[in-house]
Amino acid sequence: MELKISGKNMDISPQVRDYVQRKMGKLNRRLPNVIRGEVEISKKMTKSPLDRYIVQVTLNHSGTFLRGEEKAADIYAAIDMVIDVMNHRIERYKGKLYQKGRKAIPTLEPEQLTELVRVKRFIVKPMSIDEAIAQMELLGHDFFIFINVATERFSLLYRRHDGDYGLIEPEIAPHQAVAQFDAEA
């Protein structure tokens, strides 16, 4: 596994780097063939020392991404906590792979931004709605963008407040409607 360890608002000491590499190696044994792993450790000066260190881990397993994030007052505790989260996500992922092989339907489990603070770019691959739901659950997100194989269009899958899922499939406006909108602006 290619492993990238980075620090945000802090330098990563060799001891912490070695600790992360050992812990990530254990994850790699539980889920072999991980292409890439990313660990971002950030330090925030907050009023609450309990949220001082934030550790984010992202694993790429053949195009399927698993992600976890934890906060703690101690950097080693935050690393241990996020590794526990990732172990749980790996077990869920392996269970879904097992169910998928048995043709089972995946089980479904039930912040307000004021400014743009981050831009992410990622490769979008074609997949079914069921695959998109599974991927969204593995990432722990409330939404997921993908190319729907049934329609060959971009789709946005999101979790509704009632725990169900919604799907947004954008329609391209006719040229005349776009020109009229531009004229009104």
Structure description:
By secondary structure, the chain is α/β, with parallel strands linked by helices. It has two domains: 2-101, 2-Layer Sandwich (Double Stranded RNA Binding Domain), CATH 3.30.160.100; 126-184, SHC Adaptor Protein (2-Layer Sandwich). Helices cover 35% and strands 28% of the residues. It is built from four helices and eight strands, in the order βαβββαβαβββα. The protein has helices at residues 14-30, 75-101, 129-139, 175-184; strands at 2-8, 36-43, 53-61, 64-72, 126-127, 143-148, 153-159, 165-168. β3 and β4 (64-72) form a beta hairpin. The model is unreliable at 104-113 (pLDDT under 50).
Low-pLDDT segments, ≥5 res: 104-113
**Using DSSP, what is the number of strands?**
8
The count of domains is 2
Helix content: 25-40%
Major sheet: arrangement of strands: 1-2-3-4
- General form: globular
The CATH topology name of the largest domain reads Double Stranded RNA Binding Domain
- Count of helical segments? 4
Question: Do you know the CATH architecture of the largest domain?
Answer: 2-Layer Sandwich
Please indicate the percent range of residues in DSSP E strands (runs of 2 or more).
Answer: 25-35%
Structural class comes to: alpha/beta
- What is the C-level CATH assignment of the largest domain? Alpha Beta
Q: Distance between termini?
A: 51 Å
Computed CA radius of gyration, to the nearest angstrom: 20 Å
Q: Major sheet: size, sense and barrel closure?
A: 4 strands, mixed
Q: If you average the pLDDT, what whole number results?
A: 82
SSE order, one letter for each helix or strand: EHEEEHEHEEEH
